[in-house]
Specification:
Largest sheet: 5 strands, parallel
Low-confidence stretches: none
Mean pLDDT: 86
Strand order of the largest sheet: 2-1-3-4-5
Distance between the termini: 21 Å
Shape: globular
Number of helices: 8
Structural class: alpha/beta
Number of strands: 12
Order of helices and strands: EHEHEHEHEHEEEEHEHHEE
Length: 228
């Protein structure tokens, strides 16, 4: 078992069975686990303990997960904490609402242990994504050199035009985070007049062709994210 005791994960759900089930699987992987059953308690515990990741149920009485996430994001010390929602609901509007208040991912119930742990590990990878050299970042066999403006996969240097490179750097800056189309347009194309949703789609397709289809995920109605 890998030692992950340095990583704190806060579980928030009003169903004790869910808390027990998730806590057992996370502790088995070596994570330090905190838990509570309300949004109000989650905010206080998060403020005090500063976890690296919060697993937050959406449908809770009083303060629901959406409002809890919104309040957590307003706390300076917790602005960048990773937050993934848990819910039995799969409607697009619920997911969009979650991402709009700052969620990083979405996990639907019923939860399969192996899938759950896989998603948690994928989220936590972003904590270790940056190397000691701020100009160089590695994701498995993919390496980005910001200074040289190059991307390599294995031993092969991949030719990425300016916009593709800029888009890839943006998405890979926070693996697992969903970037909205509006934010992508603002960051990559700025005030340029010519672009639309289709332009982003074309650039994502080219990145998939060059770096691997599995790395670039479409989140319906929201935008895109990079996984590795």
């Amino acid at each position: 078992m890998q030692a992950n005791n340095a990583i704190k994960i806060l579980l928030v759900d009003d169903e004790p069975d869910i808390i027990e089930f998730l806590s057992y699987n996370l502790k088995k992987e070596g994570y330090s686990v905190l838990s509570c059953n309300s949004g109000k308690d989650a905010i206080e515990i998060a403020r005090k303990e500063l976890p690296q990741l919060i697993v937050l149920d959406v449908m809770m009485p009083n303060t629901d997960g959406i409002e809890t996430c919104r309040e957590i994001r307003e706390i300076k010390e917790l602005k960048n904490v990773l937050i993934t929602f848990l819910t039995a609901r799969s409607e697009d509007y619920t997911q969009i609402a979650g991402f709009e208040v700052g969620a990083d991912d979405y996990i639907t119930k019923p939860i399969k242990p192996r899938v759950f742990i896989s998603r948690i590990k994928a989220l936590l990878r972003r904590l270790n994504a940056e190397t000691k050299d701020n100009n160089r970042t590695e994701f498995g066999d993919i390496k980005i050199d910001l200074e040289r403006h190059t991307v390599t996969k294995g031993t092969t240097e991949i030719n990425l035009p300016k916009k593709e490179f800029k888009l890839f750097v943006l998405l890979s800056s926070k693996p697992g985070k969903v970037f909205s189309r509006e934010f992508i347009l603002e960051q990559v194309w700025g005030d340029e007049v010519v672009v639309g949703d289709r332009t982003i789609d074309v650039h994502i397709r080219k990145l998939r062709e060059k770096l691997g289809d599995d790395h670039f995920k479409t989140v319906k109605g929201v935008g895109y994210k990079f996984d590795f």
